[in-house]
Amino acid sequence: MSRRMSGTRGAWLRRLAWAGGLLTLLAAACVIYEPELLELFTQGEQKRLEPEPSLAKPGDGLRELLILALDGVDRALLYDMLRSGQLPALAALLGGRDGEFPHAHFDETLLSTLPSSTLAAWASVFTGEPPARHGVTGNEYFVRERRVVETPAPVSIVDAKPVLEIYTDGYANKLLDVPTVYQRMREAKPELSIWVSMSQFYAGATRLLLADRSVVADAFKALLSSTADGDQLELYRELDEEVADTLIDALEKHPPAHVITLYLTGADHYAHVHEQGPDQARRVYLQKVVDPLFARIQAALAGHGSLADRMVVVLSDHGHTPVVHDERHALATENEDDPPAVVRGAGFRLRPFELELDEDQEDYQAVIAYGGAMAYVYLADRSGCMSAGQRCDFNQPPRFEEDVLAAAEAFYQANLTGKHAPGMKGSLDLILARRPRPFAEDDEPFEVYTGGGKLQPLDKYLAEHPHATYVAVEQRMRELAVGLHGERAGDVLLLANNGNVERQEDRYYFAGLYHSWHGSPSRRDSEVPFIVAHPRRSKADLADLARRTLGDNPTQTDVAKLLLEVVSK
């Protein structure tokens, strides 16, 4: 199939990937069911749990916390805008004035988890555990023991059902193998009230705030009916305004909760589609859309006197790297130049890129999951399912030489010479592999495949081949791959030439067509903001709190320690 022939599917892949956040919002039209929580009742633009603990009141002795979760905003960009006075409303929420922030600590050390992508990152933030422990290793990934591809934010599989179920059936919560920070907060302080506005992970919250269903549905229809390319600012403005409106409406009707999380997706989506690149897109969006919303939220909270003793935390999940919006650089699913051609060329029967399969499609020997700068390749022990029609047992690990190294060598040759997929020549930075272990055991760390069946430890390889743009790769790769659920990062992990190269024309990504992606270990994708502010505490005091709870080399798994300390003491 030619690149041009695959354009229609590529467009759908692109739209579904963007729709990860948008479908989350669309799900406001659906009734939520959370088995571990009490019954949910529709109340206009919000869902509440009955009975809810008493809401925050001055002097009740419980800590108050506001978490502002911005999708897709890196540290350098946000800090520059705050310090240069471009975001006055957010600065005011942080107690800042004229570029000075005497009551706020701007952390300069926090890194995103790997992959530096939405679902793995927010799962780490809101559980305090790394992907290999909480189990959400990306926007999509394969679960061997259940033979299912989980797609909380689809990239390669065109099916909206799982994303809708984030709110109709608590889908994202169910993917976690550990408790959320909200559950841990209420275990320590059962009287806490917790509102979560549009975040994918909300188990333990007492109230879930959702956007207006009709507006969100109209915006989603507009996205699917358009090319999803060019200036879509008004589309995403309307979405984030609805999210903020729902919170403000709740604050008009009720005293504020002790803990409030507000999650805004628009800056990330706008960065993906804007033709002028992610930096320009996010600067414009943060100034025109997000900051005015923060001004309204500050006024609503101030009306309750709820900011006088409330900690404010600002954080994000990942940054963005500009990429070329064409099919040569987009490593998709259906062409002779895409990764599936390599897997098939190596002799593996590949699982179709569909959510649910017919019986006659269940004889696959390999699975691929995409995530921007990274892709995961999962392999079966082919010795028991060599013939077409035989179903492989993915409960068993693949053979190291015959399966894992065979696939790694195929990608090595594709990258070196273009074998099996001419367009993949020069597209990969690293091919990682490891000796497989049964899925119920802790997994071994990835090593770099150097060709000819040879592996080299990641730290030694990087010492011999320095990557100036990468940061803390070994530590974060261990958090992704070493642990009970480490096998969900694949038997072979592909890292595209993306965040490691300077020229945009040399970058590749595992997805449909975009103007920007993320997921790599690069500073651009990985250095995320983390701001802690309190009107009665000094910058030095807040810096001490951050150092004490986050540690010296923090990733997003460490954020929960600070959040728990703030509300639990």
Walkthrough of the structure:
The chain is α+β, with helices and mostly antiparallel strands and 569 residues long. The protein has a domain at 39-129 and 158-322 and 523-534 and 542-568: Alkaline Phosphatase, subunit A (3-Layer(aba) Sandwich), CATH 3.40.720. Helix content is 36%, strand content 15%. The chain contains 19 helices and 19 strands. Strands 1-2-8-7-9-3-10-19-4 form a 9-stranded mixed beta sheet. It has a 6-stranded antiparallel beta sheet with strand order 12-13-17-14-15-16. A two-stranded antiparallel ribbon has the order 5-6. A hairpin with a 2-residue loop joins strand 15 and strand 16 (454-457). 57% of the residues are buried.
End-to-end Cα distance, whole Å, is 61 Å
CATH T-level fold name of the domain at 39-129 and 158-322 and 523-534 and 542-568: Alkaline Phosphatase, subunit A
- What summary fits the major beta sheet? 9 strands, mixed
Structural class: alpha+beta
Strand elements, count:
19
CATH architecture of the domain at 39-129 and 158-322 and 523-534 and 542-568: 3-Layer(aba) Sandwich
